[in-house]
Amino acid sequence: MSWIFGMGGNTPETPNLENIDNVSDKKPSPPPSSSSGEAYKFDSSALERAAKAAKELEKSKHAKEALDLAKLQETTKQIEYQTKIKEYEIRLEQVRVEQKRVDAEERKKLLAEETKQHQLRSQYQDQLARKRYDDQLQQQRASNEENLRRQEESVAKQEAMKKATIEHEIEMKSKLDAKKSEAKALARAKAERENHDLTMEQLKLKASEHRQTVLESIKTAGSIFGSGANALLSDWDKTLMAAGGLSLLALGIYSAKGFTGVTAKYVESRLGKPSLVRETSRFSLLESVRHPILTFKELRTKKSSALKDVILPPKLESRLGDVAIATLNTKKNRGMYRNILMYGPPGTGKTLFAKKLAMHSGMDYAILTGGDVAPLGKDGVTEMHKVFDWATNSRKGLLLFVDEADAFLRKRSSELISENLRATLNAFLYRTGDQSNKFMLVLASNTPEQFDWAVNDRLDEMVEFGLPGKEERERLMMLYFDKYVLTPASQSKVKLNIEKFDYSALCKQMAEMTAGMSGREIAKLGVAWQAAGYTSEDGLLTKAMVISRCEDAIKQHKQKMEWMSEKEKNDSRYTRQNSIH
């Protein structure tokens, strides 16, 4: 009975499972030796005590409860023993799994190490092969250099021998020429010594004949003039006829000279152009003879919009559109033209719009520059009148555009100007005092505050041209990229290719980068793109080249701004324009 042993002092011991993790590492203990007699001894006292305890338990009133309790304890111990056996098996399985994982990691490490060793072996073999190839190249290079050195030495020796031969020939030839010259000189000196007397006689004879000839010529001329004067003075009719003939001859010469001058002025006013006019679209017979192809192109030019290819802010475009419509209707109705002042920083489209306005209105245009007036000096008044006389003779009407007008239309009260320039300014004011239906005056200036008050009084409308904003710069970028890059690239005769990229996005990006730049600077940037494509080896214009030229233009613009003085910045209003845009 197991419960009896449980209540007694000598119950069988349960295996210790606390250190079950180390079970796999422990070896089984050897069985007890058969020679030991103590293992087979039987303890009878224990049975006696158990029997005694059983009797006492049977006599007790709680014998049944004790038996149930002993059974319950035995069942609990069996369950606990089974649980510990299961835990032992689980831990054994975990040990096996861990051992497999360790084995797998070891195999993985072994495989990685073998792969690494294989790679190192391959790299080493590759390095050896490269080194062998480099050694071969080095040996080949050294052999080639040695052969080249030998060839150069051979050529140098041949050149030295050839040079020495040529020098020897020249030296021998110079010695021979010197000997020949010396022999010729000796022979000439000997001949001159022998013929000295004969030569002196010939010179004396020639001098005597020349002197006699001159004396006879003087005597003959004197006798002729003397006889003629004597006959003229003795006969008064001949004297009067000679005087009348000379008078008529002088009158004819002076009359022809005056007529020629008048004719030249008429021809110049009708057919030629004044010297102050730099450029004109007016047809001229003399200019057509000088430049027939250019004249033919101008005659074929069709009427176009005044704002075509002119990129300006919307408000300014609207105002200039009204000016163009008013000018066109004025010409159709033969009304009086209005004088306009266009002012603002350089390169903002003033001259371009003036040309477009004249072509749109069907008028001729003529461009003057104020810097050409001052060098004329006292002839400035005459040339100024020639310009206005020439302008009033235009059959189509003339748009007279004066660029840099502030160069000679300065204030007479405060500016220090010469008398000749003052007289020229007075002539200009005289010819523009009244409205005209023959010509339209358009002035352009960067500093209009320097104008004389009388000049301002003759202006009917003032238009300010500012620097282009972001949207205008983007439109200008697209315009000049198409004009100088895309259009030439589409022609088969032009060697220009373009890398594939988003042109519109790039133009938008460059428009943000070029704040403060004028339209003229952006146009020059377009020419720079085209030049970059032409100068490349394969004629390919890449995106990096376009951005590089744009960055160079920005640096140049900043350098120009640094060079300007504070007065120039204030006069040209760059500071205000840059702060706005």
Q: Which key features would you list for this structure?
A:
zinc ion binding; 18 helices; six-stranded mixed sheet; 581 residues; mitochondrion; two-stranded parallel sheet; 8 strands; 6% strand; mainly alpha
Concise synopsis of the structure shown:
Helices cover 67% and strands 6% of the residues. The protein has 18 helices and 8 strands. Strands 1-3-4-5-2-6 form a 6-stranded mixed beta sheet, with helices on one face. It has a two-stranded parallel sheet with strand order 7-8.
Weakly predicted, low-confidence segments: 1-37, 573-581
What oligomerization state is this entry in? single chain
β content, as a range? 5-15%
- Mean pLDDT over all positions: 79
State Rg.
60 Å
Measured distance between first and last alpha carbons: 110 Å
Shape: elongated
In DSSP terms (H or I, runs of 4 or more residues), the helix count works out at 18
Instruction: Determine the structural class based on helices, strands and strand pairing.
Output: mainly alpha
Descriptive overview:
There is one protein chain. This protein is mainly alpha-helical. It has 18 helices and eight strands. The strands form two sheets. It has a six-stranded mixed sheet, with helices on one face. A two-stranded parallel ribbon has the order 7-8. Helix 15 packs across helix 16. The radius of gyration is 60 Å and the shape is elongated.
